Amino acid sequence: MITGIKITKVEAHRDKDDDMTGLNVNIGIDNVTVKAGETTIEFNYAATYLEGVGELKMIGSITAREDTKLTSEIEARWKKEKKLPDLFAEITLNAINYACGTNGVFVVRPVNLSPPIVPPRIQLGPQGGAPAGKGGKHSDLM
Q1: 41 and 64 in contact (C-beta within 8 Å)?
Q2: What's the pLDDT tens digit per position in 4-47?
Q3: At residue 42, what are phi and psi to the nearest 5 degrees?
Q4: How do beta strands 38-49 and 23-35 pair?
Q5: Choosing a second label site near 104 at 20 to 30 A (CA), which of 28, 53, 65, 98?
Q6: Is the dihedral of CA 67, 127, 80, 40 positive or negative?
Q7: How many CB atoms lie within 10 A of CB 78?
Q8: Are 62 and 140 in contact (CB under 8 A)?
Q9: Which residues contact 117 (CB under 8 A, 6 or more apart)?
Q10: Structural domains in the chain, sorted by start
Q11: For the whole model, what pTM was predicted?
Q12: R_g of the chain computed on alpha carbons
């Protein structure tokens, strides 16, 4: 269960006055540490407005507390592959996307960029996407 999200750095800039034609959102996991049963995930978030119009960047961390088995799996998978277990990754990415998208509304306003609308829930799956209805519950995000 995610117990906290902290955004530690934000940056927004508008480089052109052109119309905004689209938005690419990229979320990266920079590091994962486990200490005393608590998992900390350091992340970066970037919303890039197409055609070089502007960009929103955020850096932060998420803390989570899971059962011992999942915590061990998270730690082992990160150390070996620099990846998170799929269901935990879905929950984590959606929490980051929601937190940065909603807070990003306030950050981009002074530079006259459109808010980074929070896209639909992210679901990981095999090539071609996950079947509908699979994944964590919405309550897992809180």
Answers
A1: yes
A2: 999 999 999 999 999 888 899 999 999 999 999 999 999 999 99
A3: -90, 135
A4: antiparallel
A5: 65
A6: negative
A7: 19
A8: no
A9: 23, 101
A10: 2-121 (3.10.420)
A11: 0.81
A12: 16
